[in-house]
Specification:
about 40% helix, five-stranded mixed β-sheet, about 325 residues, 2 domains
Length: about 325
């Protein structure tokens, strides 16, 4: 089965062809990050305008490897995300479904980030033997920890009560004078710094010790830097201390979850999963467990993960969503 995936949840317009849920035939992404850099964050209306301009050219490029008659299914991100951006992808999928007489389904974009990590498993047969597992999604809009019972079956263990970790990285980047998006720039700067130069503490949530809170950590960085003219070395140390504190908190809560939930593997998805320090820290913390990360081109928003997950959803329940399917700006993972 060949699936066309469409992704427009935020500022990436993406389309991809995936065969059998794993074999990526194409993966085309047009980002509007260059527009949003001047505003220090995503400007929703401008993101939507870029989606409108890029949508059809991106799809045309993505479907080149096959004749359109070979496409069996259309999968589209139905949410969560920016409502205007989601509507552009959804309406495009519905239009293609009518024109090509192909079924279409809407999938959860955040669940697809977890599936992106599953696509790095050597085979579908091996993947089935890795459940139950723990799943972490760490991105600009989402931070949560789940039990993965199988593809599509999850139990939420903890989530952020305020900022997502990627959002915190971007905001700390702004405090350090870095341009948007700040996450990769904070990581690069942190490589030159000594994390012990600043003492930061991650937030704790009393009601659920597996929940995350990064707002207080971000505020600590703000007050540590306030009214100080920092040299580049001090900025690097602040970036390193922030990064180390945030990732140590993620590792600690993952370890806490594993005390009550023995698992066979850890799957990590979302843009922050590409951070090399995070990868090293989790590998050090859990040396006896296989940890699966998305391929480098699937950590940020992309349509291959939408198509791959859509394949599994369709196998589970082979029907087309109705044409009145609505987008959802928020969708619980479980």
């Amino acid at each position: 089965m060949i699936v066309l995936g469409i992704e427009t949840t935020c500022d990436e317009t993406a389309a991809s062809l995936v065969r059998g849920g794993r074999d990526i035939l194409s993966n085309v992404i047009a980002s509007s990050a260059d527009i949003h850099e001047r505003y220090g964050g995503v400007f929703p209306e401008l993101a939507c305008r870029r989606h409108i301009d890029a949508m059809l050219p991106v799809i045309e490029e993505a479907i080149r490897p096959v004749h359109r008659s070979e496409i069996d299914l259309i999968a589209v991100a139905k949410g969560p995300g920016l409502v205007g951006a989601l509507l552009i992808g959804m309406q495009t999928a519905k239009g293609l479904s009518l024109a090509w007489k192909r079924p279409f389904i809407g999938v959860n974009h955040v669940e697809a980030h977890l599936y992106a990590a599953m696509m790095s498993a050597p085979s579908s047969e091996l993947l089935a033997h890795l459940f139950p597992s723990l799943g972490l999604v760490l991105s600009g809009g989402h931070t949560f920890l789940v039990k993965i019972l199988s593809v599509g079956r999850y139990e939420l263990l903890g989530t952020t009560v305020d900022d997502a970790i990627g959002e915190a990285f971007d905001k700390v980047g702004t405090l350090l004078g870095l341009s948007y998006p700040g996450g990769p720039k904070v990581e690069k700067l942190a490589q030159k710094g000594d994390p012990s130069r600043f003492a930061f503490k991650a937030g704790q949530v009393k009601k659920n010790p597996l929940d995350f809170s990064f707002s207080g950590l971000k505020t600590s960085v703000f007050y540590a830097l306030k009214d100080r003219k920092l040299e580049e070395e001090e900025k690097a140390c602040a970036a390193a201390a922030f990064q180390e504190t945030a990732f140590a908190d993620i590792a600690a809560k993952t370890a806490l979850a594993m005390k009550n939930f023995p698992c066979h593997a850890i799957f990590v998805g979302g843009g922050v999963s590409s951070n090399l320090r995070l990868r090293a820290l989790l590998t050090e913390k859990f040396p006896s467990l296989p940890i699966f990360w998305p391929p480098s081109n699937l950590s940020l928003d992309n349509a291959a993960m939408i198509a791959g997950l859509g394949y599994h959803k369709f196998l589970e329940s082979p029907y087309s969503h109705p044409l009145d399917l609505e987008v959802q700006t928020r969708i619980p993972i479980a």
